[in-house]
Amino acid sequence: MGKYLEIMFCYAHKDEVLRRGLEKRLISLKRKSLINIWYDQKVSPGIEWESEIDKHLKTAHIILLLISPAFLNSEYCYSIEMERALERHQRGEVRVIPVILRPTLWQETPLGKLQVLPTSAIPVTDPSWYDLDRAYLDVARGIHKVVEELSAELRTDSEENGEKHYPRIGEFAHGTLRDLQAIPVTTPLIGSFAPSDPEPWERLFMAQQAPSPSTILNPATLEHFEHLLTISWRLCNENQLATAERVLVSFLPQLLSLSRHEQGTASLASRGLRLQSIFAHHHSRLSDKVRICEQSVNYAREAEDANILVTALIELAWAYKYAGLPDSLQKRLIILQETLDQSRQASPLVQARIYSEYSLVLAERKRIREAELYIELAQEVFPDDPVKDLAFAFADSNMFDVSYCAAFVYIHTGSMTQALPAFERYKQHPSGLIIPERYRLIIANGQSQAAILANDAERYADLLEDVILGSARLGSQKRFDEALAIFRQEMSRSWLLSSRVKQLSEQYGLKREE
Questions:
Q1: Tell me: the pLDDT tens digits for 217-242?
Q2: Residue 222: CB partners within 8 Å, gap ≥ 6?
Q3: Greatest CA separation found in the chain?
Q4: Strand ranges, E, within 34-142
Q5: Residue 192: count of CB within 10 angstroms of its CB
Q6: Alpha-carbon gap, residue 408 to 271, rounded angstroms
Q7: Nearest CA-CA partner of 350 in 309, 406, 316
Q8: What angle in degrees, to the nearest 10, is found between the helix axes of 168-178 and 132-161?
Q9: Is 507 exposed, middle or buried (0-12, 13-18, 19+ CB in 10 A)?
Q10: CA-CA 20 to 30 A from 503: which of 221, 247, 302, 423?
């Protein structure tokens, strides 16, 4: 085989002695250059341990979950490491093997669906093994078998395709990307671009092992993954979120395993992470969104591109807002002040996003006159043809966003008669761009808030049903959760007596908290 398989240990530090004992029993696989073993104690001094663990969770071929009471009681082990490992396992990207170290009720967890080691799920420390050596031997045999299976799969695929070896994530990617050919997108895919062309994938794979990835990732390779990222954004904006996410995860973990100090890969990684944060948002994983956005900003700083940094910072500001973190308004203000510092180097499309987002924060802080000035400035600099802007492919900036912010500036001034039409101002823009469903639902939720403030129950009911149905079509839990929060916290309880609102609450099972 052309490359070793990476085995990652996930464990509670109280079980370090048992982990070390198991690692010793895998030495024969290491000597045959079949595996490489990684665990958190290998994080070098000065490196962010959490991001390093996350990187290996995304790239390991085999993840060993060392199960004990300490593991199940650890929030990090259970809710972060195990959850992310199982997500990849379900997508066929990694083999997850629970190893039962000590007696515990692991059967009541998601691990109950997996085949575990040792044989018959007898814990390693159980007296029936007589000594630890027998238990370790049983576990090592099981791991040997999995390594042989994965190695054989990789060799077979290489021989059948007449190709060199690819990692398992590459195989997953090829299957996903071939599906793109059958997907109806409004704008055709880029020229004669072939998503599953093997050479760029092999170079990305090789770069993971190279001391200097830039010597492997030539311009053609970076351009290949630039195209894939553009396709992912396009699919997202054409309401095909599930497919867009599958395309993104086919290559983003490998990019993140490379040094972020390479400008080319840092640029791709930052934009990919920002898109990944949007998917996390739609799945209502708001703490994940914050973490991903912070990582996106770190990569953006290495990319040394004002447009990339500004858009990453703005997404982080939204992450803080939606996650409801303490002092989130102050944090957003600080972040957006940094984007203002970058505005002169940004493209007009990104400048418009800076000014509109800043106006919204100013309005929330009751600095209304300044907010009005900045929203006017956003509308002035917004280009007539945003598609021609250099940052259009990834900026996620458009007249929909400017309209949304303008409407909320009016809401904060108490002018509902101006707020409601401002939400739909984008319809008059000469670009005539079709609004992505995810943006339309954001605007509809904003309109429903304005309808409540305007005491317009009928309009609110129409918007509520629109968002419920639209969220279901799009598969966006977050947009539905926002509509539900408005229903529970902002809508007048007396509206439940209205035949229209009452009908919707009964039809869709909407309940007000007592």
A1: 888 888 888 888 988 888 888 878 88
A2: 264, 265, 268
A3: 80
A4: 35-38, 62-67, 95-100
A5: 5
A6: 27
A7: 309
A8: 40
A9: exposed
A10: 423
Token pair of 374, please? 């900045």
Residue 165: the pLDDT is 41
Confidence (pTM): 0.64
Length of the chain in residues, anyone? Answer: 514
Distance CA 271, CA 236 (A): 13
Structure token digits, residue 157: 């695929």
**Beta partners for residue 62, in sequence order:** 7, 95
Write b or e for each residue in 395-422: b if 16 or more Cβ atoms lie within 10 A of its Cβ, otherwise e. Answer: bbbbbbbbbbbbbbbbbbbeebeebbeb
How many degrees, rounded to 5, is the angle at CA 170 between CA 169 and CA 172? 65
Distances (CA, A) of 43 to 14, 24, 51, 60, 297: 18, 20, 10, 15, 22
pLDDT tens digit sequence for 453-478: 999 999 999 999 999 999 888 888 88
Measured on CA atoms in the order 67, 72, 73, 77, is the torsion positive or negative?
positive
Task: Please report which confidence band the pLDDT of residue 382 belongs to, taking 50, 70 and 90 as the band edges.
Answer: very high
H-run or E-run covering 226 = helix 219-237
Contact 63, 10 (CB under 8 A): yes
Work out the angle at residue 311's Cα, subtended by the Cα atoms of residues 309 and 315, and round it to the nearest 5 degrees: 115
Distance from chain centroid for Cα 213: 24
